[in-house]
Specification:
CATH architecture: Orthogonal Bundle
Structural class: mainly alpha
Low-confidence stretches: none
Mean pLDDT: 93
Largest sheet: 2 strands, antiparallel
Helix content: 55-70%
Strand order of the largest sheet: 1-2
Radius of gyration: 18 Å
CATH topology: Arc Repressor Mutant, subunit A
Distance between the termini: 21 Å
Length: about 140
Amino acid sequence: MPMSERLGGDIKRVEQDLMAAKAAAVKPCGLTVPQYAALLALTENPGMPAASLARLCLVTPQTMTTILQNLVAMGLVERTPHPWHGNVLETRVTEAGLAAFDRADEQAAQVEKRLAAEFSDEERRILRALLARCSKSLTEQRP
């Protein structure tokens, strides 16, 4: 199959372009894209344990452990034992983390708005549906 007919390269290129734009947007706030994604998820889901956070952020549990260790060291999140499940740590954004997130989110949202502005409401709906079909096709056919 010739490269010109393969969709994978196009999808990967767009994903890399999006991540590069977001990295440039959040870097002045002292964050990486994975750190920003974790903070975003935690602002919407306070107390979420690391394993759930990893699934939501589409990273491995090991990667999320490293991300959280770095965020804790930066004073942006805190981890405390769950009141009923002693071996589960709840993760919450600190005030400093919320301030860093708010600054980063303002910039990252601009990236998302620029991207969304390229499409009409109907085109965005169709694009999401097409991407969902891509994902479904790839996940249903895993060996």
